[in-house]
Amino acid sequence: MAITVNGHEYEIPGSRPLMTFLREDLGLTSVKHGCDDGSCGSCMVVVDGKTVKSCTRDVTRFEGRMVTTAEGLDAREREVYVSAYEQEGAVQCGFCIPGLVMASKSLLDKNPDPTREQVATAIRSNLCRCTGYRMVEDAVLRAGRIMRGMEEIPPPPERIRMSDRAPRIDAAEKVLGSGLYADDLRLPGMVHAKALRSAHPRAVIDRLDVTAARAHPACLAVLTAADVPERKIGHLVHDWDVLLAEGDTTRYVGDALALVVCEREEDLDAVLGLIEVDYTVLEPVTTPEQALAPGAPELHPGGNILTHQQVKRGDAEARLADSAFTVTHTFHTSRQEHAFLEPECAVAQPWGEGGVEVFTGGQGVYDEQREISRMLRLAPEQVHSHSMLVGGGFGGKEDMSVQHHAALAAWHLGRPVKVRFSRQDSLDYHVKRHPMDITVTLGCDAGGRLTAAKVRIVADTGAYASLGGPVLQRAVTHAGGPYDYQDFDAEGIAVYTNNPPAGAFRGFGVAQSAFAIESAVTLLAEKAGIDAWEFRYRNVVRPGAELPNGQIADESVGLAECLRALKPDWDADPHAGLAVAFKNSGLGMGVPDVGRAILSVEEGRVHIRTSAACMGQGIAQMAQHMLCETVDLPPDRVVVEAPDTERTPDAGTSTASRQTVFTGEAVRRAAVGLREALEDAGSLEALEGREFAGEFAPPTDPLGSEKPNPVSHVTYGYGAQLVHLAEDGRVAKVVAAYDAGTVVNQQALVGQIEGGIVMGLGYSLTEDFVVEDAVPR
Q1: Beta carbons of 440 and 516 less than 8 angstroms apart
Q2: DSSP one-letter code for 756
Q3: What pTM did the predictor assign?
Q4: What's the CATH number for 191-282+344-428?
Q5: Tell me: the pLDDT tens digits for 492-549?
Q6: Which CATH number fits domain 595-696: 3.30.365.10, 1.10.10.10, 3.40.50.1820, 2.40.320.10?
Q7: Between β-strands 450-462 and 595-602, what pairing exists: parallel, antiparallel or unpaired?
């Protein structure tokens, strides 16, 4: 039996998914492993001109067929698709892009002049969590125009400045699938590991017997809690068990009990099935109300409240009592899955004297270094962490999911180990957006000016802390909305339950409180008899005014201008929905927060070195713009290195919308030093070997500061959105206006806005991660 792949004939070795044959036997890693059931399209290839999802079809069914992957595109096709996708800004995390390119090829080979509707139909089986799809459609249409000779491929820019439309540095490797994600790594002697997870959200582990598993001929090792030097780790709070032991009580169905290592990934489940576990099953704590009830079981030492946060200014109770109009309502926001296209994966191997080297797809290599070194009781410098390409994150890859288990196994076995979540593992075990119950009382005077707000928030943080504390802080500090009033009382608690852990997610607690306060504003405007647009326009914060959290809005705030931009659409549709919002940048709250970068001159080029992780938002492009704006360098003289704890300085986690502000400014400051040295030296060659460091660490004030106008966050972004509904109640159109400050890169900005809008529509209309009795369904 033979199959032709990219023009070469191969013998079919036996039954296995076509995706496995392409990736593992032929090494064609443009074919991505995003799921195992044909849901995502990341594994899409072209077979005899038609698209095929290779994860669900057995290779034996393709005897005598011709298969094309992104590696098999001819030179012209490669040039066209790279240009079209990069020019339209269709590339973000990149994990889905090779599959989309194959869908594009299948369409354009048959119909080189498609309509937008035909393009949408052609890519309907390809999921993309980043872009919102319009840019992808534009890329396919542009590729068609180039193929037909209607448009030329533009030359690469000779110079890049702030706010330019400029192609991403990483576009080509993502479009063609040549860039490597963690699951694409193949190290000599690499083996595979997988954890046994708890069968119950809350149960005592009475017996854990791994004898039969260790006796299996395919088993290399079974690691248990006894093999973990330090069992408790965690991003901020050390409350998350690496492996649980006999006598421990499980906290959610994702708790790991043992770690099995085999030569072949396909043997892992058979060995895991031989581990015997006896439980005493306990009633799970499934809601914050249950967790807070008298006599509730303590899920962690110290009780079931992870954190309590409050912002209180003025006298909200008195002002509400004197207000002409008030509304009180309780809002519930649901749990949400990040649904990044790349499931979690890490590869680790021994390194140095007793250390480990880890290749991951997380959101902070220094976080991984810190937690893994704690687990193994090593000095931090004994853990060398690299970031591969990251196939989406949205906050969901800040915690340890597979990295620590890969490192633990490699450290014990002395050989490379890969740990990879399946899509179902990822859905079941990693953190989610916090569900919150938010009660808002909001008041205004007879003229429609806001007077005061009282907000109470209860967040279900699930089984472990993760980022529950900072998420609640953001929810509280933003709970008053971007409005000008000063009597404000917002209080919240984050509560442990036996549900899947909740952590960081795009918006970081602000999405929940923004939904609540904006819904209350709409209800209050209606009660006061004032147009919803006019009500907001009277009250939104303007330069020099005070936000409810006390921070003074700086001179750049343009939220009123955003509302004015939407006014014509609002006037044209009295039934449209309207909301405004603001979101912080940086950790804030008095927490030390530092962006760092080093510029090094190597072989006539400037290397930008920073640990800031890119999950698709365009860190490399942002840093290149900052450098080229400050120093008149052509972009082909710039290299942006991947995060690496041996090469790149600690720029903090890619979280809290902080990297453009913090690391971008660090790059600019380093670039000022380079520019001054270049003026003296006359050429880059004369600076060979020199390094220039930049750091940015603006101070902020802690929550509860006694200052009359505390600086909770270094800066905020503002925006307004209007949603038109069709007659059947479906969303017809979204119109958005954003105060984005100085635009760094046009395509990246628009891509983030459109992707965020689509994700927000999903959160509000279709996405609800259902958990019943603390078990994902």
Answers
A1: yes
A2: H
A3: 0.97
A4: 3.90.1170.50
A5: 999 999 999 999 999 999 999 999 999 999 999 999 999 999 999 999 999 999 999 9
A6: 3.30.365.10
A7: unpaired
